[in-house]
Amino acid sequence: MKFTAAQIAEILEGKVVGNPEEEVSELAKIEEGSKGSLTFLSNPKYTSFLYTTNASVTIIDEEFELDQKVSTTLIKVKDAYKAFSTLLEYYNQVKLNKSGIEQPNHISKSAEYQDDLYLGAFSYLGDNVKLGKNVKIYPNVYIGDNVKIGDNVTVFAGVKIYSESLIGNNCTIHSGVVIGADGFGFSPDDSGKYAKVPQIGNVIIEDHVDIGASTTIDRATLGSTIIRTGVKLDNHIQIAHNVEIGEHTAIAAQTGIAGSTKIGKNCLIGGQVGIAGHLTIGNRVKIQAQSGIGRDIKDDEMLQGSPAIGYSNYNKSYIHFKNLPETMNKIHQLEKKINNG
Fold it and tell me: What molecular function does GO assign, one term (predicted)?
């Protein structure tokens, strides 16, 4: 799909300097721009590339002043970085603007959906499924019985959404995600064998939640596993049964959260963090990557290490740990002096 500089400027409320009919059909880094590509300049470190780029159109700040001629058509905007981000979102919407129902698929007679549904091939909609407006379901998606999905939700290929799950509006669920599988519930008996504890709860995902590829969110034993509004989950995260994650919390890849732990609002959790079960983590908590959390955390704490301690204490302790061989050598030398009188 091609756009002219004039069309792009209208979308971004910018001003064209150069040829308004210059066409672009792809996006590129400014140093890698070629004919027919669109790029942007916001970091002064890349200013030199503005005068050498082969990109057809470049977005720049309106306050930027040229000190030599350029071959690229310019679009001047208030904030080039934000404008380019807006354009990326617009481009993504156009690229993903699929519609219609592909074949083959299975749609239960009791399923309800809107006329603007996109349903990819080999997908399955179970009994009593209810889909909102502008829902896009890519190929090979399974949606179990009694699932409800709100408006403007995109479910990418290969997602599995088990029965009874509830998903709000404006959510994005990436490939390989599993929502609503059984929680890890087993009870040992006297013989050492494990009997399965039925998992009869569900998963609730509120509005504006993004879930990265291959993340898994288990259904509750009783009640609900809840992902609150605005939560952002990276790839390969495990969220166990009855966990609750507060509004606008962001969690990086390969983190595991054990059952029944409650995480507050606006928390930032790094990659490969392990969080034990039945804990309460406060609001605005920051946990550094690869930390292990085994206790309740108060609001606004910043933690690192395994088991995790205060972030500043960890840094101080690490300095001593790094210098431990030298420190031990000094201690041994002092012991020799003392022993030799």
Answer: UDP-3-O-[(3R)-3-hydroxyacyl]-glucosamine N-acyltransferase activity
**Residue 320: strand, helix, or coil:** helix
pLDDT per residue as tens digits for the range 244-274: 999 999 999 999 999 999 999 999 999 999 9
Give CA separation, 42 vs 61, 86, 313, in Å: 7, 14, 37
pLDDT in tens, 105-155: 999 999 999 999 999 999 999 999 999 999 999 999 999 999 999 999 999
| Distance separating alpha carbons of residues 63 and 76, to the nearest angstrom | 8
Instruction: Give a three-class secondary structure readout of 128-186.
Output: CCEECCCCEECCCCEECCCCEECCCCEECCCCEECCCCEECCCCEECCCCEEEECCCCE
Active site residue 248: no
* Under 8 Å between Cβ of 174 and 213: yes
Residue 47, phi then psi, degrees to nearest 5: -60, -40
The answer to whether 129 touches 108, Cβ cutoff 8 Å, is yes
Whether 37 and 22 have beta carbons less than 8 Å apart is answered as no
| Domains of the chain and CATH, by start | 3-95 (3.40.1390.10), 100-314 (2.160.10.10)
Annotated catalytic residue, options 106, 208, 236, 241 = 241
Neighbours of 164 (CB within 10 A): 20
Helix (H, G, I), strand (E, B) or coil at 22: coil
What does the pLDDT look like over 38-96, one tens digit per residue?
999 999 999 999 999 999 999 999 999 999 999 999 999 999 999 999 888 888 877 78
- The number of C-alpha atoms within 13 Å of 304 and in the hemisphere containing its C-beta is 10
Give CA separation, 80 vs 13, 30, 84, 320, in Å. 11, 13, 6, 45
Q: Which tokens hold the place of 95?
A: 């690229």
* Residue whose tokens read 């606004």: 300
- CB-based contact 149:167 (threshold 8 Å): yes
